[in-house]
Amino acid sequence: MSGADPASPGRTGALFEVVQRVDGVKMFALAALAAAACATSRHGSLLRRWEAVTGWALAATITASGIGYLLLSTALTPTAFASLPLLLVWIAALGAALGRRS
Q1: Helical spans, DSSP H, in the chain
Q2: What pTM does this model have?
Q3: CB-based contact 51:82 (threshold 8 Å)
Q4: pLDDT tens per residue across all 102 residues of the chain
């Protein structure tokens, strides 16, 4: 399987499914990162309360989105749209928190 081929729609469809499922695995990794940062900041002073709440919301929405990608379910597509702004806000907040720490 070298790549997408217009003469072979089956191969192209299979590649598309593989990419979608790998994207779901990536989302689980991002959710684990957010949850781990929020859990560890509970004992320290890394994240402010609103940053931790945003991180937990990100972990929840991006996990649901990852499930949707793994199952190739369009019913969970709205969670992907919700998780993107949360991801952007949380990454910026995490960067600011790390900057405050040093």
Answers
A1: 9-41, 49-71, 77-101
A2: 0.81
A3: no
A4: 566 667 777 888 888 888 888 999 999 999 999 999 999 887 777 888 899 999 999 999 999 999 998 998 889 889 999 999 999 999 999 999 888 877
